[in-house]
Amino acid sequence: MPADFISGVELSRRLYRDAVEPLLARHFPGLPHTAALIGPGSEVLGFDTERSTDHDWGPRLQLFLATSDEDLFGKLDELLSSRLPPTIAGYPTSLVATEHGTRHLRHTTGRVQHGVVIASLSSWLSGHLGFDPLTTITARDWLATPTQTLAEVTAGAVHHDGLGLLHPARQALAWYPDDVWRYVLACQWQRISQEEAFVGRCGEVGDELGSAVVAARLVRDLMRLCLLLHRTYPPYSKWLGTAFARLPVAAQLTPALTAALTADNWHDREAALVIAYEAVAALHNNLGLTAPVDPRVRSYHNRPFRVLHAERFAQALLAGIDDPVLRALPVTGAIDQFVDSTDALSHRTRSRALGTALYPD
């Protein structure tokens, strides 16, 4: 392997520029195509490091053709297998599958087990998302699609868009429509409102472990809320902290969130969360999505626990939604706000079915 790590996006760019594009020009001159690196993978989100190279990482990209050119898929695969160079930028171009279902960089001679996915753009998008973003995107489409999946299609890199369709698709998915955004934000505030009093209640009965678990859940929800407020799709748990750290508000909030996680008693835990609540409430008000909502904490009814009563922010957002259908939905939100199973969220048929079950109309 090269001594100096380069990002997966840059490696993909070199694969296309130095190897795939010249082969296409020579053997299929004028063939309309789109080349990109989108979909699963830490490198697509820009989070890959040298550690990422140990599996499912390497010189790879998607090569999209028009549906009318599907008869060329096999010929292109054969061309790349037989004619790609053995290395790109010092990395092997062979990604060899193992019995565990992962692929690993391996130096090989002869045919290359390349990392180029050849597909029609419409079928790939529909398969990955569960819908075609180049047609009408419904509210159910938005709500049944995990934010990780939306991030995978809108991040990464487009090396060449000869079909002229991938850029419009990514633009269509760049962020939620305004009413959907307000609804998702409202549901995130609602999640916080449902547990913010439990940090003190658990601690009051001597359950410091339970209090810490609730605090950790609230920290996670606050981080996701901040990403949503900054119009950034929250990634799945492995990269949530990394994505959050890139937000402008992270420097202000990280000390309080860290203190909430490391406190050894519920009083300190609550005090740290109070700082975070009021900072995120101020961030909400600064966006002007609703009339200003009092960002100060208060007692939880007649109990001695300090909370934001985050449902106030949810109610303000819901009241500003123009679409009566969205406004009438249960305050459950997008699928990854009410489903927490990787096997459900990463399986498009299952996630779509769950979304349809909750939002049948």
Walk me through what this model shows:
With 361 residues, the protein is of the alpha+beta class. The protein folds into two domains: 8-172, no CATH class; 178-329. The chain has helices at 8-27, 73-83, 121-129, 139-143, 147-154, 166-172, 178-195, 198-204, 208-229, 237-245, 250-262, 266-287, 311-319, 324-327, 335-338, 342-345, 348-358; strands spanning 34-37, 60-65, 87-88, 91-92, 95-97, 103-105, 115-120, 157-161, 298-300, 303-307. A four-stranded mixed sheet has the order 7-2-1-8. A two-stranded antiparallel sheet has the order 3-4. A hairpin with a 2-residue loop joins β3 and β4. 38% of the residues are buried.
Judging from the principal axes of the Cα atoms, what is the shape? elongated
Number of domain modules: 2
Order the strands across the largest sheet as they lie in space: 7-2-1-8
* Weakly predicted, low-confidence segments: none
End-to-end gap: 53 Å
The counted number of beta strands is 10
Arithmetic mean pLDDT = 95
* Biggest sheet statistics: 4 strands, mixed
Report Rg.
Answer: 24 Å
- What fraction, in percent, of the residue positions are helical? 40-55%
